[in-house]
Amino acid sequence: MAEGLDGREFGKSDFVLLDEVTIDSFMQNLKLRFQKGKIYTYVGELVVSVNPYRTMDI
């Protein structure tokens, strides 16, 4: 897994992997991933995308 064994460096890539499912843990994980440039996060089969407010090379 590229994000590390437990997701500490970039947060969990899928919210279903959170140890505690609360609004606070959801937002903390989303904020950490955004700060690390990871704008896409799964919730099972769905994808949450955060606007990076910058030009993307896609």
From TrEMBL:
Keywords: Actin-binding, ATP-binding, Motor protein, Myosin, Nucleotide-binding. The keyword Heme does not apply. GO terms for cellular component: myosin complex. Residues 10-58 form the Myosin motor domain. InterPro entries: Kinesin_motor_dom_sf, Myosin_head_motor_dom-like, P-loop_NTPase. SUPFAM superfamilies: P-loop containing nucleoside triphosphate hydrolases (SSF52540). Signal peptide: none annotated. GO terms for molecular function: actin binding; ATP binding; cytoskeletal motor activity. It comes from the Eukaryota. Pfam families: Myosin_head. Belongs to the TRAFAC class myosin-kinesin ATPase superfamily. Myosin family. This is Myosin motor domain-containing protein. It comes from Branchiostoma floridae (Florida lancelet). The lineage of its organism: Eukaryota, Metazoa, Chordata, Cephalochordata, Leptocardii.
